[in-house]
């Protein structure tokens, strides 16, 4: 089913309001989910709506949070999310980081006690619109084996980085530190497709191609990806005094409890380091250099990070965003949720 961006956002927003979220937070949540779907990051778009609705309806997301920003230094702060929408909290915290980086050249802002915040490139793009460079890291539920281990300890702990250019294009790296994000396994399940045997392991620790048999994910590049996910957990969890490692709450565990996740935004103002226009021009130059590199056999072009999504955005803007039929039916129905997620294993649908 193809749906326009505007219609999709309206459908998401209506569901979230029906589940109990405030209009303001429903609007922001819908915006971040559409940001994901319109880039083809379907793992973090429409397919998550019902889960969020169930958590909101059961009290696992604070619908009237007391959001507070505590400035702890000229360039540092902690955003207290009070169990509220991770999307609204992460966005508001980035707004605070942007203000401080404009004034002081750099900002480091932690978000604590938040709920899930989706595709985290959304927040780095907020900074890029203000001619700033941003790095965002966040915790996610434990489902990844540490290098050499058989039991999960870390989450898929994503890293997003974005920088502005002189022509409006954005370098945008946005990646889970696992070979694939968990949502990609969910998406494969929803379409009944197999997965490559390098993504995940089954209950015995063997590589599997069946998304339904996945018991833990694998870090990118063995010990190096494992080290990166540890860094994310230290900076967005331990640094903020939050639960860490395998104590991070699971997506589906007790939907009546707030999740206590952490996120960290680091914003850098290039104007404090070099000439801003020259910086942006050089970002454009490096993008062009990359695009002009001779493609390897089997490749048509070298893309800079994020550029691979441009064709998807263009096609979806022209023909509407592709949404799985079952999910569309749910979105247009009166149902808030079907009680599908409560206390499911982290590896549930
Ligand atoms: P991915 O594997 O699809 O892409 C990772 C990065 O590689 C992107 O920046 C992409 O632009 C770049 N890339 C891909 N193909 C490329 C090519 N041919 N040339 C140049 N660059 C290319 O992303 P992944 O790891 O599956 O993550 C998907 C989403 O999941 C992200 O938006 C992430 O923020 C989100 N996520 C959110 C979590 C949360 O708890 N909030 C947890 C884990 C992931």
Explain what this protein looks like in three dimensions:
By secondary structure, this protein is α+β, with helices and mostly antiparallel strands. Helix content is about 35%, strand content about 15%. It has one domain: Malate/L-lactate/L-sulpholactate dehydrogenase, NADPH binding domain (Ribosomal Protein S8, Chain: A, domain 1), CATH 3.30.1370.60. The chain is built from 10 helices and 11 strands. α4 links the parallel β3 and β4. The two termini are about 20 Å apart. The mean pLDDT is about 95. The structure holds 1,4-dihydronicotinamide adenine dinucleotide (NAI). 1,4-dihydronicotinamide adenine dinucleotide (NAI) binds next to β7 and α6.
Give the gist of this structure.
This protein is an alpha+beta fold and 349 residues long. The chain has helices at residues 5-19, 23-38, 49-57, 86-104, 121-128, 182-190, 223-236, 276-291, 310-319, 325-332; strands at 2-3, 68-73, 76-80, 106-114, 133-138, 159-164, 170-175, 200-201, 216-217, 261-268, 321-322.
Specify the CATH architecture: 2-Layer Sandwich
The average pLDDT score comes to 95
Bound molecules: 1,4-dihydronicotinamide adenine dinucleotide
Number of domains: 1
Instruction: From the 3D structure, determine the CATH topology.
Output: Ribosomal Protein S8, Chain: A, domain 1
Beta strand count? 11
* Broad CATH class: Alpha Beta
**Biggest sheet, spatial arrangement of strands:** 2-3-4-10-5-6-7
Low-confidence stretches: none
Q: Identify the overall geometry.
A: globular
Radius of gyration: 20 Å
Quickly count the helices: 10
Q: Can you identify the CATH superfamily?
A: Malate/L-lactate/L-sulpholactate dehydrogenase, NADPH binding domain
The class by helix and strand makeup works out as alpha+beta
The major β-sheet equals:
7 strands, mixed
Fraction of residues in helix:
25-40%
Note the gap between the termini: 21 Å
What are the secondary-structure elements, in order, as H or E? EHHHEEHEHEEEHEEHEHHEH
Instruction: Note the beta-strand portion.
Output: 15-25%
